[in-house]
Amino acid sequence: MKLNTLWLLAATAALATTAFTAQAKYNGEDRGRPVMPAQSNAQWVAECGSCHMAFPPGLLPAASWKKVMTGLDKHFGTDASLSAADTQMITDYLVKHASNRWSANTAPLKITDGEWFKTKHRAGEIDPAVWKRESVKSPANCMACHRAADQGDFDEDNVRIPK
């Protein structure tokens, strides 16, 4: 009986350590798995993708998407207002497919403000001058370096930083 109890305690400790490490990795601000859901939403692609890449929902938590969608009248300096029905449909889609691994009590408006993004794009690895290149323009232009970002592919092996 003691052996079973010891095994159970060891297994529980291992699971707790794994859970803590996963949360601590990016201070609990981790992108979801998968980043891009299997089913797309045509309205989301059409509306959001008309001005920028339709960012994969798994890059932010549900609270962030709710904040973004309630502020479309002042969407990063642009009025991106939609009808109430379209706003609700897109919000529902983004919230349903938001990051399932975000445990922090944060809700950044920008993907670039999240710890996962900051860790993966730290200045020691990427020269800050890269963001100013005409071919890149800003950290929000995922497609400049991640050619399949619109499909949710952010694999480091596929990154090509343009000149």
TrEMBL record:
Signal peptide positions (record): 1-24
Pfam families named among the record's database cross-references: DHC
Keyword flag Signal: yes
InterPro entries: Dihaem_cytochrome-c, Multihaem_cyt_sf
Keywords from the UniProt entry: Signal
Protein name: Cytochrome C
Organism lineage: Bacteria, Pseudomonadati, Pseudomonadota, Betaproteobacteria, Burkholderiales
